[in-house]
Amino acid sequence: MFVTGRVARTAAAVLCALLVAGACSSGDDDPAPEPTGLIAATTMRGALLQAADIGPTWQPPAQSPDPNQLVSICGGTSTPPPVPPGGEVVAASFVDEGEKGAQTLDQTALVYGDPSAAQAAQAALRAVADGCKADVSVPATVNDEKSEPAYTETVEIKTLDESGWSGFVVIRHKKYEPKHPGTADTAVAVLSSRNVVLVDAYALYQLNNASTSPNFATDWPKLVGSVVQRVG
Fold it and tell me: 74, 171, 196, 214: least buried by Cβ within 10 Å?
């Protein structure tokens, strides 16, 4: 239904071992100093996680994502939004495929010339999120490009603040029909700081399992936090 290959693993344990200690801290550390100045594209390029940072089974996708299009925010059959214009795009995407499911990580940093442009871009993406339906039902799709059972998907939007970056996260939960048990949980975080908007999407797909992975709720914040703490 989704993928074939190795057994999918969660990212949390590898992140705690390989990334900066702040990504897995208890939250008792002193507050970070208030950042100043603009963030360069080279800084964001170095901050985005690479496959070696996440784990040995992660690798770039077989087909590179369209640099002019972001990941789907609303899910279902909604069209993924285009990249808000005016900024430089820095992106890195990786997958971990397995016999029981898969994980994907899509990171896109939009680097603008000034904070106002970044704020406008984030507002445009928030408008897309605000237009998402809370619940959708999608019939089975079988064609030359896709074979997917019928499913229902819920969407929830939450405010998000992480190490001086602020914005929102869209949490999606997809559940397939009983005769094809499986789930897909996705978190799309849209955060901004100074002149940059970060769109960080983590998805966890499970085959033959109708329950949400207990690690999903802790894994996606660690992945996002690891990036923004690298920026400083």
Answer: 214
Distance CA 85, CA 112 (A): 9
pTM of the model as a whole? 0.86
Q: CA 129: distance to chain centroid?
A: 14
Per-residue pLDDT, averaged over 108-122, amounts to: 98
Q: How confident is the model at residue 17 (pLDDT cuts 50, 70, 90)?
A: very low
- Write the CB contacts of 112 (distance below 8 Å, at least 6 apart in sequence): 86, 87, 88, 118, 121, 195, 196, 197
Band of pLDDT at residue 165, cut at 50, 70 and 90:
very high
Dmax over CA atoms of the chain, in Å, equals: 54
Task: Give residue 167's region: left, alpha or beta (phi > 0; psi -120 to 50).
Answer: left
Yes or no: say if 200 and 44 are a contact pair by the CB < 8 Å rule. no
Cβ atoms of residues 132 and 73 within 8 Å: yes
Using CA atoms, how far apart are residues 52 and 123, in angstroms rounded to an integer? 33
CB 87 within 8 A of CB 79: no
Q: Could you give the C-alpha distances from 130 to 133, 148, 157, 170, 230, in angstroms and in order?
A: 8, 27, 8, 10, 29
Above 90 in pLDDT, residue 26?
Answer: no
Q: What is the mean pLDDT of the chain?
A: 87
CATH T-level fold of 12-26+43-231? Protein Transport Mog1p; Chain A (3.40.1000)
- The domain locations on the chain are 12-26+43-231
